[in-house]
Amino acid sequence: MIRVEKVSKEFALEAGNFTALRETDVTIGKGEFIAVMGPSGSGKSTLLQILGGLDLPTSGSVEIDGVRLERLDEKGRTLFRRTKVGFVFQNYQLLPMMTVAENIALALAANRAPKAEIDRTVARLIREVNLEGKASSYPSQLSGGQQQRVAIARALAMKPALILADEPTGNLDRQNGEDILKLLSRLNKEEGITVVMVTHDRHAAETADRIITLRDGAVVEDAMEGAGRK
Ligand code: ADP
Ligand code: MG
């Protein structure tokens, strides 16, 4: 599903180049639930951005679901992002002036789906993330946990094969974080969606089947978890 080969990422800074990923290799199978751990600044978010086509590697190759990302042009990458991956971020990144239903419908509307189909899909997703009755609410009227569930529903709208989540429980208290982990786990186990989740929380990481640890832009550990949290 995901093959990262010798991927390096350098950022040009005034003081010179900074290497965020150094010749990193990662292979992830379809249907895996992966946690990416490592200290702050070790390259976790950079790796996720590259997997999602939000950024390009300086060198190396990234293949997702048969698509070589570094060979796509800007338009191809936009289409890839919109149709193949769902992103979930620590700070939710919902649009504040739009309702829950409108936030979830964004990608479908951008792809010009018919209105009846959009309404049906949005209603299904709202049920799926347990937010019945909140369709017309605005993000500011919701708790953090509820906002993150809207973000997950939005990520699911295009039926992605892959969910990329960067510290999805980072802003949540224990109980709300637990609910988000259970939701991601269910989507992985029941719908077969591959999940790659960055977290610095060991407890959260144990939800995953496998934990990849980065340090200074390189994989230093790659370990299968036990039964995970089912
Ligand atoms: P993590 O998510 O593991 O905390 P990041 O992937 O965000 O780490 O960052 C890795 C390193 O790359 C950090 O030292 C960070 O400062 C640097 N970095 C990330 N993005 C940029 C950027 N756009 N420009 C310059 N440096 C960056
Ligand atoms: Mg990060």
Automatic annotation (TrEMBL):
Entry-linked InterPro entries: AAA+_ATPase, ABC_transporter-like_ATP-bd, ABC_transporter-like_CS, ABC_transpr_LolD-like, MacB-like_ATP-bd, P-loop_NTPase
GO molecular function, one term: ATP hydrolysis activity
Domain ABC transporter intervals: 2-227
Protein name as catalogued: ABC transporter ATP-binding protein
Keyword field contains Nucleotide-binding: yes
UniProt keyword annotations, A-Z: ATP-binding, Nucleotide-binding, Transport
Species annotation: Paenibacillus antri
PROSITE patterns in alphabetical order: ABC_TRANSPORTER_1, ABC_TRANSPORTER_2
CDD domains per record: ABC_MJ0796_LolCDE_FtsE (cd03255)
GO cellular component, as recorded: membrane protein complex; plasma membrane
SMART domains: AAA (SM00382)
